[in-house]
Amino acid sequence: xxxxxxxxxxxxxRSVAESVQEYGRGVAGGLMFSLPLLYTMEVWWAGFxxxxxxxxAYVAATFVLLLGYNRFAGLxxxxxxxxxxxxxxEEMGLGFIISVGALYLxxxxxxxxxxxxxxxxxxxxxxxxxxxxxxxxxxxxxxxxSGEGEAGxxxxxxxxxxxxxxxxxxxxxxxxxxxxxxxxxxxxxATLFAANVAPTEEVVMIAVESSWLRLVGLALVSLLLGxxxxxxxxxxxxxxxxxxxxxxxxVAGSVATYGVAxxxxxxxxxxxxxxDGVTLYTSLAQVIVLGVAATLGAxxxxxxxxx
Amino acid sequence: MRKLQKNWVEWVVFAVGLAxxxxxLAYLVYDGATMGSDPPSIEVRLGxxxxxxxNFIVPVAVTNHGDETAEGVAVEVLMESSGGEPARGExxxxxxxxxxxxxxxxxxxxxxxxxxxxxxxxxxxxx
Lengths: 307, 127
Known about the structure:
The complex is a heterodimer of chains A (307) and B (127).
Chain A: H1 16-38, H2 41-49, H3 52-72, H4 81-105, H5 115-140, H6 153-166, H7 179-197, H8 201-209, H9 212-232, H10 238-241, H11 247-271, H12 280-305
Helix pairs in contact in A: 1-4, 1-5, 2-5, 3-4, 3-5, 3-7, 4-5, 7-11, 7-12, 8-12, 9-11, 9-12, 11-12
Chain B: H1 8-34, E1 42-46, E2 50-51, E3 56-64, E4 70-80, E5 87-96, E6 101-108, E7 116-125
Antiparallel strand pairs in B: 1-3, 2-3, 3-6, 4-5, 4-7
């Protein structure tokens, strides 16, 4: 969660009301981004079918993702690593609490169930919610930033360049958005998008029914979408983070984004057990099918998540 | 490094978050370490039959004692009364996770009280 202190009063502690408001925003964001997964049967099943260690790995991976996201995106570029870690832990905690509450209300978790069944479902849903909480807190907010000229639209874009110098003192330690950070945000976005589609049966169905020609088509569309969103569509932020450069740069950028999208897509599919007992061709076909969603997420992640 | 400034609400949320995260990870690791790799082993228990308005119902509790989930568990209940073919009841359970119990009913037109009821699992899939 963002912990941007008021610029004029750097040492002031946030008021309780402000904190509660921020958590409220996080809860709303968490539910908004994860609602499709809370209402998906395949996710509940994955919760009790997956080996506990696979779930533990999922928790660890989500935590690393949150660390990266909180470090490079959101409102708090000035946060130190300790603060980033604390924020990530808080987001995970909110994720668990929301997950238990939502699954109970939806009747997915009852007191008669065995502990491993409850834990599996709660953990698997909590991770998506935690990412949603993180993204929601950073993206839905912005009120605190108004004093720094983040009024929105073109004004904010124009001022951003000057802001680094103007408030350089307050923003010391801001990590430069180097290639690695960009790719990490792309990975966050890809995971968030692809996770909504990956657990469904439809991905497998499309993958096994598609001819290789269609798969190549999907891959090309993914690459084009990546280029379109990053370089030609004038999305908010596109100018700031992607410099106008030649054709080769556009191609390289799209290929890099697509690569990240494919990796994210493969990892999520593996987690949901989609590679168990299928041929390499079917696995690859699934990765490409899901890759379209992941590319959209990866491109959006590079532009939108970091605002 | 800047000093951390957090109010009590934020510390409480952090403490609860840390506790939940640590206990969830600890449980998953423990659970993974202690679970075996037995295939599903399913026990069927029948409750006392009850008369209903249009038929008789027999409660069925199905428990998976194995370490893997069974999918599409088909359970058959036979009622053998003196003379004639045994009456047959059946139910299917979509998912029976490891160590989990699911409950349901089978119905009969004749009164099963006093008759001999036998239950067995017909089969199930690996998920």
